[in-house]
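seq:
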Amino acid sequence: MKPETRSYYEAAVLRAMTRVVSSLDQALDLQSLAREAALSSFHFHRIFRGLVGETPLELHRRLRLERAAEQLGATDRPVTEIAFDAGYETHEAFTRAFRAHYDVAPSGFRERAADAAEACHGGPATELAARSGLHFRNGRVDFDALTLPSTRGITMDVVIETMPTRRLATVRHVGPYSQIGEAFHRLGTLAAAGGLYAHVDPRMLGLYHDDPETTSAAELRSDAALVVRDDVPLPAGLVEVILPAGRYARSTHRGAYSALGDAWARLMGTWLPGSGYRVGAGPSYECYVTDPRTTPTEDLQTDLYLPIAG
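struct:
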């Protein structure tokens, strides 16, 4: 392991966390956080989540809510003002979010705090669960308790592979990533109708181009893909995409597709910082080794491919 590489990613994340803390009174500029880390927003947010346990936006929202809870218990500021400071445009939206995290409405939380003060014992807790230990306490964010997980002793099944340039036949999907199955169905239909399966690797790939933190779900772009021989004409409806050659870190996830986000977070937030490698150019992608139509969910195998520099 190269300590300077871990330090590089840790330093980038710590700088971003400082920016998050300093932006509690304003909207968070997620794109600039990634630019300052010299990473694409897609890769940056995966590394951040893996190291911290939540995305920058989740951290920002949680600290704002913790500040709001402290103000409800310690001041007589109107709930509407506290809601606006926490980034909510309406009292109702703030109440829904607050209740979801504290299991009580803001007014009820304030009443509990007042009752506790009158009885001279501790009021309701304002801190929400967070792996990083970073919380809003006593009018400030407490960096003294900040912890980032160590990668010492942690091992993952990661293989470094040099991949050739590959030609893909793709169907573009625009919308929530969870709905890309529609594009895979169309890809399979067009490939079968055009006799393409005699000339392809039958395993399908998924390429995800946009960061869900900075792009609305309706505008997320992804491609369902098959690797096709160079000399094979593509049937109408399929679009050619060239996947560049390069070195990739491959990790295997076994289980439900819904847990792939956590698998990426472990790869990029746990393995990558301690690996001695840095993220390289080109897209990350997923290779679906098993057929979900015939494989039990717990036995599904998905290979994650992360481009690495050098």
